[in-house]
Amino acid sequence: MNLDISNISKTYANGVQALNDINLQIPPGMYGLLGPNGAGKSTLMRILATLQEPDHGSVRLGDIDVLKQKDEVRKTIGYLPQEFGVYPKAKAIDLLDHFALLKGFTRRTERKQVVEALLRQTNLWEVRQQKLGGFSGGMKQRFGVAVALLGNPRLMIVDEPTAGLDPAERVRFLNLLSELGEQSVVILSTHIVEDVSELCTRMAIIDKGSILLEAEPLRAMRDLRGRIWKRIIPKEALPEIERMYAVISTKLLAGRTVVQVYSEVPPGADFEPVEPNLEDVYFSTMAGHIGKGPKRASREVKP
Amino acid sequence: MKLAAIIRFEMAYQLKRLATWLFFAVVGVVCFLLARENFLADAMYDDFYLNAPFVIAVISVFGCLIWLLAAAPIAGEAAARDVQTGMYALIYTLPISKGQYLVGRFIAAFLTNAIILLGVLAGIMLAVYLPGVDAKAIGPFRAVAYWHAYGVVCLPNAFIATALQFSLSALAGRTRASYAGSLILFFFAYIISILVSFPLGQPELGKLVDPVGVVIIVSSITFGWTPAEKSTRLMDVSGILLWNRLLWTGIGVLLLVITHWRFRFAHRVPARRWWHRWLFPAAKEALADAPVSVLTSPISRPAIAPAFGTRDRLRQLWGLSFDAFLSLAKSRAGWIVWGAILFLTVSITLINLDLDGVPLIPRTDYLVLHYAAPLTNPYSPWILLPLLIIYYAAELVWREREAGISELVDTAPLPEWLLFASKCLALALVLAVLMSLMVVAAILVQLFNGYHAFEIGLLIQAFLGLRLVEYLLFGVLILVIQVVVNQKYIGLLCSLLAYSIIAFSSIFGIEHHLLLYGTSPAWNYSQMRGYGGSLKPWVWFTIYWASWALVLSIAARLLWVRGKDQRWRTRWRMVWQRLSGNTGPALIMAAGFMLAMGGYLFFETVIVNQYASKNDDLQRRADYENKFSHFANKPRPTLTAMKLQVDLFPEQHSAEVHGVYQLVNQTSVAIDSLHLFVPPQVDRRRLNTSIKRRYAVWDGRFPYSIYVLEKPLQPGDTMQLEFVSQHWVNGFTNNGVSQLVTGNGTMLTDELLPAIGYQSKPELLAPGERRRYGLPERPVIPSLEGYEAAPYQEGIQKVQVDATLSTVAGQVAVTKGELQKHWTKGNREFYHYVTESPIPNSLAFYSARYAMKEKMWQGIAIQLYYHPGHTINVERILLSAQASLQEYSEQFGPYPYKVLKVLEHPGLGIGMHSESGLVTSSEGFTLFNPGMDNRGMDLPYAVVAHEMGHQWWGGQLPYASVQGAPVLSEGLAWYSAMGVVEATKGSEALWSLRRFMRQPYPFPPIKMGVPLLQAMDPWQAYRKGPFAFYALQEYIGRPAVSTALRQLLQKHAGGKPPLATTLDLYRELQAVTPDSLQYLLHDLFAANSFWELKTEQVDAKSLPDGQWQLSLAVKARKFVIDPSGKETDVPMNDWIELGAFDGERPVEKGAPYLYLQRHRIHSGSQQVVVTVPRKPVWAGIDPRYLLIDLKTDDNTKAVGMVKP
In the CATH scheme, what architecture does the domain B1088-1204 have? Predict the structure, then answer.
């Protein structure tokens, strides 16, 4: 079952165009939606989760019209919002039980089984009798996953899930998601490149409401091979380099400045080739060198 | 500088918020409406100005109350916004001090509130100066009146309330805590102060504990000031008012100091105090995460699929509702609310369970009508219930969003109707708990009182049935408002507005229940008549409003917000999308049903039972007067005898009267036409006259017909009038169902009998109303002098009545007259009554399953008809009636009939009514439980004696309705009752009764006024009048007073004009008063005199002969007060009793007095020396409080001993 997003546009009352003619075909498996803050990721996610109306376009999940048959969609999705609260005085098991009821598990004994399985799955079984008000960020996030997983959703919408998690929590969490990807469509929006590179078989890069690139991470990296170069420079030389080359990223490495540039031909002896990773794909896309973003003339070095 | 910056920033923030100006507008609009709708009419009636300082002050108080309830977020935001939004981390680390921060924020909140309260003045000024006000009602503009009220009422209130709201919010770290502050103040102002003032009998303390000024300003000014004062006087900022303002301002300052002391610039760690740990033992603060491996196990979940069938939906509905209900019910606040409501209901009832100090039996029918008042009655503590509903509804609608889980819930596969329905059901569960608390409270009150005739079924029916439905309909409206408005605080405001419109509908001119959401004609319950048919209109209207609730609920489902996009454009688009499927047809069906029900009710109440609005009715009455009043002086025949056949059909709620009137021309001219006042129940086609009539004229709009006689009725000639009158319940009206004839407890008055000639009863009385409808001005009551000079005087018609009543088997039918015969035919009982002598023309017909107890006194049968079971006061009534017959026959003249009937009729009123040979009381009278009265008095006994007094004063002495009339009836009746109490219960009992009568309630003394002879107000009639008669009796002797009264009766008993007035009474009293005491008679009756008598010092020394010499230093003053309140001293040289006694307190008379003699006392201080036989303990001037002295506790003093 595929998720087809066609011609989705959305403009907010204050004139900000959040989404601009988005078209995506999303097959089963993990799908990463990568973009900077404010790119329109959450708007798109909320449209998919029936919480927002686009101005134009249509979304279909298999044979369900997501925008019109909301009730049907809600029976098949799991949604983990970017931010959510809990009833601080409620126990984890009770609140999950409550959500299970909302999701349609109306028989008490069956509900108990479902809840227990999910609590064990998300490693919350031990703390099930604790009040949610005392949960750490990661525990709360896992509780959210448990809620989203209720009812074996065929479409999981996971909005910026790893922001604010410590490294161990993040790993744990990504593992959980990857399990899910084996069974259903999982859309993961994030601004962290590693999330996508570690998990997703397909991805899209979105910025200012438009899809800049839709690709498989591995192929995208392969396609970029031989076009990314790096050079270690003194900090003062940066303006000069930026003027001369298509710099896609600048990093500090042990106190020294490392620039990476996009160039289809070797930019010069001072530069050494780099094996591209997804971050390079991202920065190249954002800079307009690849994908559908506003094209920027790659500044070839004129020796 | 920093302080100023903090204030400036906060003020700018608050003043930029829409809510602030909304509060301003609400306060302004409410004050505008109050001024226009409430005070304008009063001003026109009472002759003070609409912009009088008094009006401005009173409206300010109410404006403050509204502000208190609405504007709590101002202080809450200022105090706790930073904590709530998480901004505090940025603020607390700035280089400002805690003091600067708190003081700055407080001042800003206070100033903002002060600005909002300017809305009070704006509202009043608009009300005065916008068009639509009679120029007569507007006085000259006085800025000081506005600023004075603002300074004395509004500003201190703003300070006190802001301080409390601010402190609570700052310490709790929650903006919402400010509402608790509002509620506390509201509670003190409305409930505590009224409790302290009345049931506890501490009016001064009550004024002090009222933080808003409701009691102190509204009660003391409204009732204590004359119209002249009301128009001009500013409140004195002294005495109790000053103390009140100082006390509460002080409390405000103290609260702020405590807040400063407790407040910390620190991260908030949930503090756990001992009681918190005790209340919530299971909670643990910090959690250790469970040990988790980085790798997760493969996902394996039980193969259970969600289900969405109808039964599953119902399970979800119940689960959701119950969960939401528990969140409200089980929270700390929930428990506090339940506990407080139960405690307050029980304790207030236990404290209040008396009337005029006489304990009442907590009978279930009484509690049912006193608990959980209907929504339309905002003047009771139960205003708390709608306010709770408003609060709970907001909490329910905003629960998910405030907890931040709305997105999780919104994406769950739940239809919107289920979400909304779960809120309704949760609210219903909350209401069920509240109503169950009413049931429990009622049972507890009965248990505490040792009353064991429980009627739990009735309690459940009334509270968990009827009231629950009424409140739930309101609750659905509030939920819909919150959903549609979609902004919590504006939703709360709209809810309050909706409630005010319902509660104060008459102010807004909405009278018909079809237009007022959730209301219906009120049901009532009495033990005699049950619901008496009042449930039927209630049920129909409730179905009608339930269908409205359904329509509104569907609207709420259509506009339900799901997700982030909350713009109206999106919501409208969703409406069309959601109308697909079953919703559209459901909406059409619900709306169709609503319209059908509305149509039926319109047909029933407007067309079948011709609805007339209040204005229509006034207009019709004005037209009646304009059209027919010129016939008032036209000669008319006199009704001398009537023969009636009254058939009552209690089961059908109907009655039929066949009557024949005997009309005699007692005038000296021929009468050529018969003018009749014909009530609509009389069938005009079946009216017959014994003299043929040429034609008749009538206008269907008025109950007035003119029959032109073929042959004029010559002086002294007689004619007959025959008529048929039918009463039946034709469905119901906007006011409910007629309860004149009900299954048990019929009380059919004579309003369905025709009357002869023009009747002045429908005329408009209030000067304002008369002005509005263009009728000539005239005093509400004719003046005393005017009556004596009037050329034409209407007499009291006395009529011979022969009435045969029939009713259903098992019931007794009663009316005036002596029972001639009783027989049974088929399943009907017949009673034939004939009056042995003519009686004043006023009849009523009663029928119920009565029990009857009879007692004979000198050939007169005293018959008590009562509801079986209402036996508590049976003996008391019979004894008092007998004692009264004995006493009054001796003193004033014989009782003119052979039977005296005392009869109970349905209704929970407490009063009694007395007419010739018949004393009636409603069921409420049987709630009195004087056996439990610990004041040594028996008020019901005295009340019966008072009503028996009316058998002479009113019954035998018809009086003219002019000034002073209430003194002739009520004053003499109470004076007579005092005689009965003294004769049968002793002088101690009389002393207790007089002490009760000196208390300021139910009739507070009114000093400024007219002399007793012209008096109209209840204090003069019911209190000062009897005191004056009693004082006179003690000065000139009882036989003399009785002689005067006997003379008065003899001269006026015929009922022929001119009727008796207080001037006739005064002449008789003058005739029996010795010259030396004529001054006293004048002071008591013909002048509004007061005495101030005081004993400053009493010393005694023993004399060698064993006697004691007593020297009293006394001070005296006599003065008169005119109606505008001006006092004028009158030099005195009056005979006043000096007394000494060997008890601790004064008594009426008798053994404890060692000395009781009248002395000449002149104005000012003086010394009197007397000799007494034994050692005195107390002594003083006027120890028996005979003269009109409003301060009696300084009359006597403990005697000091002087060594000889």
Answer: Sandwich (2.60)
